[in-house]
Design goal:
This protein is α/β, with parallel strands linked by helices. It has 2 domains: about 240 residues, Rossmann fold (3-Layer(aba) Sandwich); about 80 residues, Arc Repressor Mutant, subunit A. Helices cover about 30% and strands about 25% of the residues. The chain has a 9-stranded mixed β-sheet. Strands 12-13-14 form a 3-stranded antiparallel β-sheet. It has a two-stranded antiparallel ribbon with strand order 1-2. The chain is globular and about 70 Å long. The protein starts with 15 loop residues before the first helix and ends with a strand.
């Protein structure tokens, strides 16, 4: 049997001096993509992930900064792997070229269409060989769902990210995977616990208004394994030629994510109904959001808007929990200062007025709220 020093199964053995000699984190595209990393780009359909990823690819292939963020290596080949038809790629790249005034050399951007599943070892063997032959410094996989239709997002995510990380080290570059969000919060990858925990870097693309096809996009560097995270950028599409490019825009004023018009009004009515139907001091914010149902992020935004407008009142109260009392932030509908929507008949009796509620306070149906 091999000694531990000779065993390949145990990976690379490093002593303290070896650790100090490991390469320090270096940017590929300043602020957004690092060398020798596996990066995850997350966004819902329509969040302009592909526009951004093509921009990264064209910038690395030409050396042109991406929206003012310098490329920190000499121009190098890029491999762009697509799991769907590539009919729209030419127009998008042509728009980038027209806007930047720089042509992408044919040999600098290689597109692979409809390969075998990225969950297959054969895919990685052949991609590895191609990347080393071309001297590629960036590999983009767009998207996980289209490139791995046979994969289990929970079971296979870690394996795919590990292959990406190993390839990134070998090409002294970066490997980037685009992935969709789930039905819940739009800042988390579908199967997030596996994808995001195994990636070196996570960048989230999120439309600020999901009802607007040309809504500004917020880009957040959510995770950076060896550096600071939290950098934000706001982008918007601009028509160029037969397609579009992304451009930086000033961060728009904060907007009530619950929306305006009928949708926002319906959410506010639903929150009102939960508040006024419940017995006083019986529910948490999570319970209110669950009771309303639908898009939890929109419900939370609607509730925050009602608090900001003084339509919902908030106080810290002591609430019995088991054998002890616990301080909670409690909400109640304000019926004195303003009435935004008419109260309907409750589905059940509100019950006796809580003795701690001052007379004439305008409080109807207070509800417990947890800090989230």
């Amino acid at each position: 049997m091999k000694s531990p020093i000779e065993s390949r199964s145990l990976g690379r053995m490093l002593n303290r001096a070896d650790l100090a000699a490991l390469p320090k984190p270096e940017p590929l595209i300043e602020n957004w993509v690092d060398l020798r990393t596996a990066a995850l780009v997350v966004g819902a359909t329509g969040a302009n992930k592909t526009f951004a990823l093509l921009g990264w690819a064209c910038s690395v292939a030409t050396g042109v900064p991406w929206l003012g963020n310098p490329v920190e290596i000499d121009p190098a080949p890029v491999i762009y792997v697509v799991g769907e038809g590539g009919s729209g790629l030419h127009n998008r790249i042509a728009a980038w070229e027209q806007d930047s005034g720089v042509k992408v050399r044919p040999t600098r951007l290689v597109v692979l269409l409809l390969p075998d599943s990225i969950s297959s070892p054969n895919f990685w063997e052949e991609l590895w060989e191609l990347a080393l032959v071309l001297g590629a410094r960036l590999v983009v996989l767009d998207t996980f769902s289209s490139l791995a239709p046979d994969a289990d997002e929970t079971k296979d995510a870690a394996g795919v990210l590990r292959q990406m990380a190993s390839l990134a080290v070998d090409i002294d570059g970066a490997v980037v995977l685009a992935h969709h969000t789930g039905w819940g919060p739009q800042d988390r990858a579908r199967g997030a616990s596996q994808f995001e925990s195994n990636a070196d870097s996570v960048v989230v693309f999120k439309k600020l208004d999901t009802d607007d096809d040309n809504s500004p996009i917020e880009v957040l560097r959510k995770k950076s394994k060896d550096g600071p995270a939290g950098l934000r950028l706001h982008l918007q599409r601009r028509d160029v030629g037969a397609s579009c490019v992304l451009e930086s825009v000033t961060a728009p004023p904060s907007k009530d994510r619950s929306g305006t018009g009928a949708r926002g009004e319906a959410l506010r009515r639903a929150i009102r109904d939960v508040l006024t139907d419940a017995d006083p001091y019986t529910l948490t914010r999570t319970q209110v959001v669950t009771e309303v149902g639908g898009d939890r992020e929109r419900v939370r935004a609607a509730l925050n808007g009602l608090l900001g407008d003084g339509i919902v009142l908030e106080e810290s109260r002591s609430r019995p929990e088991g054998n002890r009392a616990r301080e909670r932030k409690l909400l109640a509908w304000n019926t004195v200062d303003r009435v935004v929507v008419p109260l309907r008949q409750p589905r059940r009796s509100v019950g006796a007025v809580d003795p701690t509620t001052p007379a004439g306070s305008g409080v109807v149906g207070a509800v417990g709220v947890e800090d989230e």
